[in-house]
Amino acid sequence: MMSEIVNLLGLDADGLAQRCADWGQKPFRARQLMRWIHQRGEHDFHAMTDLARDFREVLERSACVAAPAVIADNVSADGTRKWLLDVGAGNAVETVYIPEADRGTLCISTQAGCAVNCLFCSTGKQGFSRNLAAHEIVAQLWHANRALGAGDPAQRARGERPITNVVFMGMGEPLQNYAATLTALRIMLDDNAYGLSRRRVTVSTSGVVPMIDRLRDDCPVALAVSLHAPDDALRDELVPLNRKFPLAELMAACRRYLERAPRDFITFEYVMLDGVNDSDRHAERLLALVRDVPCKFNLIPFNPFPNSGLRRSPAERIRRFAQRLTDAGIVTTIRRTRGDDIDAACGQLAGEVQDRTRLGERAARAAGRSVPVGDREARTTRAAGKRGRQPAEAQ
Ligand code: SAH
Ligand code: SF4
User: Ligand 2 pocket: which of 111, 119, 123 to mutate (most atoms <8 Å of CB)?
Assistant: First the structure.
């Protein structure tokens, strides 16, 4: 009998069955538990009335269902909702819910900070603190579901599910926290838990080539690759991991991934940086690069943060870049920035928890917002300090 308290939020079907066996329980007990925890959002073992009383007492002594504490919970005028979760030792991570007419998407984090250190990313600039455990990744979905009323029997009877899609586009590089990401994926896809479709769960990576292959073999889901540059010289600067896994290897990994992927394309994310990667010539070279990879493009207007030294490409430039890709037959979307009024783009609030001195700055900025950038992807934008990582509209 194990002595430490195990957080059941982080156990997939096999892990839970193994624990139940250790406790002398039959495999179907694991399935029952999974449904209580993930579908009904129950954390109190005493409320799980169809489990034998002595099994409930074992659970009470040896296990828990616990999510990180909520530090902040903000709802934007457009319905976007963002939670800031306390993962201990001064670290916080963000989870963002984006409701749309035909789906609800949750954007989740996999690490506190990130070691890849992309030039344009405020999470990267915060440095790497630690990997999240599987239970901390799943807790984001568990918590959001509960907050959105998913455990409510009436809502479930109507077949309503607030969260239909999950994107790993919050803080951190999921493929540098592979084991926990894999366990979390398995729980998200499990019919006794969230039952999400593989096509509706998207892992976004800066290009950890060997782990793209592992994911293909272990648990293929939709894949988004953060490209950001059409050649190695520029990508080495923007995404330092490129020095280890250059573009030719990354494109080959994408092709291998597609052999088993649930969707027949890779989504390439491309942050639009004024004067850096946004010219017609960059677009042409990009088309040559991805010639052999069935793909869609998601152009992300850069979200500035203090001292980034970078600017967002003008709206007209982004449209023109998108048009060139579209003309070549590639489905291309421009990501809308949502939830600007609550800094819903990831990385922002968590950075401020680390550095409380910035809270004053933030209040000052909130008082003086403005800057329209154009058509429907334009929103009221703060002069500084926001990151853009909402999920692709095309997914
Ligand atoms: N580490 C993974 C997933 C998290 S980042 C990855 O890099 O893919 C999710 C997306 O947000 C990535 O495409 C990333 O490049 C983008 N991003 C990061 N900082 C940004 C910023 N300041 N403005 C716009 N997009 C940004
Ligand atoms: Fe890490 Fe992704 Fe940010 Fe790069 S863009 S530093 S990989 S979180």
Answer: 123
DSSP run (H or E) holding 82: strand 81-88
What is the separation of C-alpha 160 from the centre of its chain, rounded to a whole number of angstroms? 22
Provide the token pair at 89. 């030792």
The CA radius of gyration of the chain, in Å to the nearest whole number, is 21
The residue annotated as part of the active site, out of 219, 295, 346, 377, is 346
Residue 340 CB less than 6 A away from ligand 1:
no
Closest C-alpha among 44, 45, 37 to residue 150: 37
Distance (Å) from CA 29 to ligand 1 centroid:
40
- Kindly report, residue by residue over 139-188, the tens digit of the pLDDT: 999 999 999 987 777 777 777 789 999 999 999 999 999 999 999 999 99
Give the integer Cα–Cα distance in Å for 20 and 8.
11
CA distance 205 to 201: 13
Selected catalytic residue, list 20, 94, 136, 295:
94
Indicate which ligand has the atom closest to the C-alpha of 385. 1
Class of residue 24 by CB neighbours under 10 A (exposed 0-12, middle 13-18, buried 19+):
exposed
For the full predicted model, state whether its pTM sits above 0.85.
yes
295 noted as active-site residue: no
Q: Are 16 and 32 in contact (CB under 8 A)?
A: no
Cα distance between residue 347 and residue 79, in whole Å: 19
* Tokens representing residue 113 in the block: 């900070």
Which ranges of the chain does DSSP label H, i.e. alpha helix?
Answer: 13-22, 27-34, 53-62, 122-125, 134-147, 153-157, 178-189, 209-218, 232-238, 247-258, 280-289, 315-327, 348-354, 358-367
85-134 residue pLDDT tens? 999 999 999 999 999 999 999 999 999 999 999 999 999 998 999 999 99
Pairing of strands 165-168, 295-301: unpaired
Q: Would you call 346 a catalytic residue per the annotation?
A: yes
- For residues 155 and 48, what is the distance between their CA atoms, to the nearest angstrom? 20
Other Cβ atoms closer than 10 A to 239: 25
Which of 334, 318, 319, 344 has its CA nearest to residue 394? 334
Whether 389 lines ligand 1, by a CB cut-off of 6 Å, is: yes
CB 270 within 8 A of CB 228: yes
- List all residues 6 or more positions away from 45 whose beta carbon is below 8 Å from its beta carbon: 51, 56, 59, 60, 63
